[in-house]
Amino acid sequence: MISNIEQEVSNITKWIRNYVENANSKGVVIGNSGGKDSATVIALCAKALGKQNVVTIAMPCNSIKQDYEDAKLVADKFEVPLLNVNLSEVYEKLENEVSKSLENMSAQLVEEAKVNAKPRLRMTTLYMVAQSLNYLVAGTGNLCESMVGYTTKWGDSSSDFNPIANFTVEEVLQIGRFLGVPDQVIEKAPNDGLGNATDEQKMGITYKQITEYIDTGKTDEDAMRKIERRYELSKHKRAKIPVYEYKRKNYLEER
């Protein structure tokens, strides 16, 4: 846990402010899922930049109504705008078109590809709005998710910067509580909004076990095996894109 929460929050907000200013940006756009991570990032950015420089976006994609209600609760709490971009029809159209194309190859659109399309559509939406406003996209993924690869490549794992990427779930909750994120959001079981099951049910491990492993290198034996396997299989999500190294003189890099 964070030993001096007041000082750490001060450090984070200063870092956010400096990063946005150095990028010559006017503000930030944040995907508002109604969950603890996005709520905490919204709270941090509103504190760092002023509520007038933060735009949040709810992006329902055949989602449950409660997620939007929680997103609105967060936006109202921190007095930031909440845009509502419903992606349900866009997603259904995309799924249908890709499915028809794959049928021509005697192939099927697999379930995992369908699931991952939703966060990728959301990230596309965030960047469309951000570029139109000359804003940056703030990421909302935490360390536990990254550790076990519980992210979508080019979806929720993409952003211009991420102020909570090096904090575990428990630490994000600590920051959120300190900043006044509503209890209804803080206490909600983590859910990626892509199904009825919680994150922990889908993974078969708990965030507490992941945090314990990060902090001590140990946890429940079965959970530890699952964490280590997930970590190995998801290395590609944390790595830079592999490129063929062609030797050439690059004057820009040498300056």
Structure description:
With 255 residues, the chain is of the alpha/beta class. The chain has a single domain (5-193), classed as Rossmann fold (3-Layer(aba) Sandwich), CATH 3.40.50.620. Helices cover 55% and strands 6% of the residues. The protein contains 13 helices and four strands. It has a four-stranded parallel β-sheet with strand order 3-2-1-4, with helices on both faces. α2 links the parallel β1 and β2 (54-58). α1 packs across α2 and α2 crosses α7 (169-179). The protein is globular and about 55 Å long. The model has no long low-confidence stretch (mean pLDDT 94).
Low-confidence segments, ≥5 residues, pLDDT <50? none
Supply the CATH architecture.
3-Layer(aba) Sandwich
Quaternary state reads: single chain
Secondary structure category = alpha/beta
How much strand content do the residues show?
5-15%
| Strand line-up in the sheet with most strands | 3-2-1-4
Radius of gyration: 19 Å
CATH hierarchy, class = Alpha Beta
Main sheet: strands, sense, barrel:
4 strands, parallel
User: What sort of overall outline do the alpha carbons produce when their principal axes are compared?
Assistant: globular
- Please count the helical segments: 13
Number of strands: 4
Question: How would the blueprint of this fold be written?
Answer:
Layout: H1 5-22, E1 27-31, H2 36-49, E2 54-58, H3 65-77, E3 82-84, H4 88-103, H5 111-133, E4 135-137, H6 143-147, H7 169-179, H8 183-186, H9 199-203, H10 207-216, H11 221-233, H12 235-238, H13 251-254
Parallel strand pairs: 1-2, 1-4, 2-3
Helix pairs in contact: 1-2, 2-7
